[in-house]
Amino acid sequence: MPQYQPHQRFTEADRDKIAGRLRDAFADGRLDQPEFSSRLDQLYTVQTYGELEPLVRDLPAVRTYETPRVVQDSKPAPEPGNFPERKKDNHPDRGRRSVGGFTGVVLINVVIWFIIGLGNGGHWPHFWPVWLLIPWAIIALGGLGRRR
User: Fold this and answer.
1) Which pTM was predicted?
2) How many CA atoms lie within 13 A of 27 on its CB side?
3) Helix residue spans in the chain (DSSP H)
4) Nearest 5°: CA angle at 143, between 138 and 145?
5) How far apart are the first and last CA of the chain?
6) What is the dihedral of CA 140, 143, 144, 147, to 10 degrees?
7) 29-74: per-residue pLDDT in tens?
8) How many CA atoms lie within 13 A of 43 on its CB side?
9) Contact partners, residue 71, CB within 8 Å, separation at least 6
């Protein structure tokens, strides 16, 4: 990286970077409104690096990149072609949990069917919840054959 001399002129990109630092310092509460406005006005009148330095001298250095904490604590990715082993869910209630959630859906539909029948004066419609009972029975019976 080249060493800048105080008498050298800076670029518009450099001016934009300094304006960004001033905006960040104002947003962080390091500069109040009058100080921010004054420094920003000065920024657009100066032309050399030496004149820029006093505008940001008392502000903290800029961090160009910081690794998020979530990523810092994670394990590195495996080598290409190596796949991590999946953890198997061998919890004994796994099958019961899936059946239990679906059981609630089936029961709600049976209750709706029952209410419709009562509302029609005892003329019960076709028992359409059977279409939910079939997959529910398959799931429930499939879980019974598994060993723990």
Assistant:
1) 0.42
2) 6
3) 12-28, 33-43, 49-56, 69-72, 94-119, 130-144
4) 105
5) 64
6) -170
7) 999 999 999 999 999 999 998 898 889 889 887 765 566 666 566 6
8) 21
9) none
